[in-house]
Structures are given as structure tokens and as C-alpha cells.
Amino acid sequence: MGIAKYEVKNFDHLRGLKGITDAQIEVHQKLYEGYITNTNKLRAAISEMVKSGKAGSIEYCEIVRRLGWEYNGMRLHELYFQNLAPGGKIATSSFKSAVEAAFDGFDNFKIHFFKVASMRGVGWTILYQDPESKNMSVHWISSHEEGHPAGFKPILVCDVWEHAWTVYKKPTERPAYLEDFWSNCDFSVADERLIK
């Protein structure tokens, strides 16, 4: 029977982004495909180790730890690609209202999001919503699997690993990439992710 496999999702809608080149997206999507391949391999290896009585071994434990890295690398890239569109889409009134309430204004939200995304290091900047209170907050996620607030829902996801811009920008040009990211944000997708 075997375990179900994850499949590569189609993100052809990303062609023609403002600033972020098609070549950049092509390289980025290849990286995403690698996360899917590795997630599937690790899940299969874990299944085999359980069946063969090797669950709990040192190798098993390290593979289980690695699965979080690969799985979140896959899922975060999907969320990131989904919230981009050529030229972006303006914030819907419900998304804008939710952000204004959480950050005392949409401009304050952008400043805060950019400052978090500009912090030294590589990782992710994510606007989350707490499903219990519906409050929103911006978080820095180091690696892929570290720093996620438990149970919170990702609303807007920005990849701030250098691989997100170094095909078309220098490694030191993160601020320019962030402006390109923002100009391509499809805020209607962020609105659809909101718990209302």
C-alpha cells in the first residue's frame, strides 16, 4: 500500500512579478521541489524503520528530527508562493481592518513586518493569527521548524533566506527584495487565510 506522497504544486502564476525575476522564481521553485522530495523520502524511511523494528534507534530519531525541517521547508514555501502575484493585490477591507486593529494602523504593520524581516540572520517573517483570540502578531522563524507559535495560523509569509533574492540581487540587498516582495503581495490571499 505505502504511505501517501506529497506532490509539487503549480505556481505558474508567479511569472512576471515586479522586481523578482522569473529566473529567481525558477531557482526558488527547484529548492521547494527538493523539500517535497526529501519529505517523501524521510516519511518512507520512518515507515520502514517502524515496520522493521528500528523505531527509537539513533538513526530513526535523527530522521524524525530532520522531517520537521524538510516538511516545514515545503509548507512555508507553498504559503509564500501563494501570497504572491504579479503586481500584488491591494489589502481587502477586512484584512486591512484586522491589521489596523492589531498594529494601530496599516503603516505601522508594514514598518514592523519590514523591521522583523530585516533582522540579521536567515529565516522567515510571518504574520500569524491566534485562532483563540484572533489577535495577530509578527514572528521571526529561524530555520523552518523553530519558533512557530503553537496553534497559530500563518496569514502572510515572507521568505528571508538569501536564496529568495540572490539570483537577481546581491546578498546585501535584502531591503530592495523586501520592497519587491511587498509590491507583489496578494493581500486577498492573506484575507482568505484570516479566521473571521
Question: What would you give as the CATH superfamily of the largest domain?
Answer: Iron/manganese superoxide dismutase, C-terminal domain
> Could you name the CATH class of the largest domain?
Alpha Beta
The average pLDDT is: 96
**Based on DSSP secondary structure assignment, what is the total number of beta strands?**
3
Taken from the alpha-carbon principal axes, the silhouette is: globular
The CATH architecture category of the largest domain equals: 3-Layer(bab) Sandwich
User: Can you count the helices?
Assistant: 6
Query: Main sheet: which strands, in order across?
Result: 2-1-3
Helix- and strand-based class?
Answer: mainly alpha
List the helices and strands in order: HHHHEEEHH
Q: What does the oligomeric state look like here?
A: single chain
Topology overview:
Elements: H1 22-51, H2 58-82, H3 93-103, H4 106-117, E1 123-129, E2 136-142, E3 153-159, H5 174-183, H6 187-193
Antiparallel strand pairs: 1-2, 1-3
Helix pairs in contact: 1-2, 3-4
Explained architecture:
- The protein contains 6 helices and 3 strands.
- With 196 residues, it is mostly helical.
- The protein folds into 2 domains: 21-82, Helix Hairpins, CATH 1.10.287; 93-193, Iron/manganese superoxide dismutase, C-terminal domain (minor pseudopilin epsh fold, 3-Layer(bab) Sandwich), CATH 3.55.40.20.
- The protein has a 3-stranded antiparallel beta sheet, with helices on both faces.
- A hairpin with a 6-residue loop joins strand 1 (123-129) and strand 2 (136-142).
- The longest helix is centred in the first third of the chain and has 30 residues, at 22-51.
- The model has no long low-confidence stretch (mean pLDDT 96).
